[in-house]
Design brief:
The chain is an alpha/beta fold. 33% of the residues lie in helices and 23% in strands. It has eleven helices and twelve strands. The strands form two sheets. It has an eight-stranded mixed beta sheet with strand order 6-7-8-3-9-10-12-11, with helices on both faces. A hairpin with a 2-residue loop joins strand 11 and strand 12. Helix 3 packs across helix 4 and helix 5 packs parallel to helix 6. The two termini are 19 Å apart.
């Protein structure tokens, strides 16, 4: 583990459950622990429904936790109140998956971006606020004149740039990027990822980058955390994960990444996962990946594997590792 003094965010035993029906409980995030160093990008990947978005939103307090703790600069996010909570909402922002649904269609772009500035009283002069918004629009690659338009007048990529500008307006240091490229055309995705990388270098930002596109996650992340059915199954440096994956689930995900060389793609061995994803309302006993894993043993069906260290800063939850 890294020196805890380096941690910007530290998560210990975090759980987030949702009530389903009269007696059911959906275990969206079930006892996860990890950290994010200041200035780095932690990629979070997994299939839809694995809990990655819920984890990100619970980390910044958009969802109340069920158990565990989320420490931001050593202070519990879910215990913050009053001015301390307000300061945290300034320092930690989120970029949402759907840029259209997350932007108020009745507000002009200028007012959407300026909302946080006014709320936190960062600038008191309306003239200065206008100048700051113009500066932010240029920063994210948009014309200043766009500030006087409405959200419906823009393309998906432009809307996401507006969402990024809104997040940057309050000068945060930590941003949860909740699948910020999944709703965009492939041709636009690289532009947004490049913009996020550029802004990180210029402003010293720290990212939690949530996605299901593993090729993009590899490009932008320093470390990668793989989730399956509310659990962390593997977490390590990006290069280590892509070159030496350890968990069978990680290997299967990586084998599905298309390779641009047709000959190499044709010769590549694809690891196919059989069976259905279990319900998070009633997860199986033991390893949650057991019914889709070709290596599963009786131990896997009876005992839940712990996240253990198998190499330098490389953690895996698998009985076979």
């Amino acid at each position: 583990m890294a020196d805890r003094a380096e941690y910007l965010l530290e998560v210990n035993g975090l759980k987030k459950y949702f009530k389903v029906g009269k007696k059911g409980t959906l275990k969206a995030v079930d006892d996860v622990s990890f950290y994010i160093r200041k200035g780095e990008t932690l990629g979070v990947v997994g299939e839809s429904g694995c809990g990655k978005t819920t984890c990100g939103r619970t980390c910044i307090g958009l969802y109340d936790k069920t158990a565990g703790e989320v420490l931001y600069r050593g202070k519990d996010v879910h215990q913050m109140r009053g001015e301390e909570r307000k300061q945290f909402t300034k320092m930690a922002q989120i970029i949402f998956q759907d840029p259209y649904a997350s932007l108020d269609p009745k507000m002009k772009v200028r007012d959407i971006i300026a909302e946080g500035i006014r709320s936190h009283q960062l600038i008191n002069s309306e003239e200065k606020i206008r100048e700051r918004v113009d500066e932010l629009l240029v920063t994210v690659g948009l014309d200043q004149e766009y500030g006087d338009r409405y959200v419906h007048e823009f393309s998906g990529g432009q809307r996401q740039r507006i969402g990024i500008a809104r997040a940057l307006a309050v000068e945060p240091e930590f941003i949860v990027c909740d699948e910020p490229i999944s709703a965009l055309d492939v041709s636009i995705q690289a532009q947004i990822v490049n913009l996020l990388g550029k802004l990180q270098k210029e402003k010293g930002l720290t990212y939690m980058f949530i996605a299901h596109d593993l090729s993009m996650v590899k490009y932008i992340s320093d470390r990668v955390m793989v989730m399956y059915l509310g659990k962390i199954v593997e977490i390590t440096a990006s290069g280590q994960l892509y070159n030496h994956p350890a968990h069978p689930y990680t290997k299967a995900l990586l084998s599905a990444i298309p390779i641009p060389d047709p000959k190499v793609e044709e010769e590549k061995v694809r690891i196919r996962m059989e069976g259905e994803i279990p319900s998070p309302v009633d997860p199986p006993k033991g390893c949650r990946f057991q019914n889709r894993c070709q290596y599963a043993t009786e131990k896997c069906r009876m005992e839940e594997p712990e996240l253990k260290l198998i190499g330098k800063d490389h953690y895996v939850a698998c009985h076979m590792c």
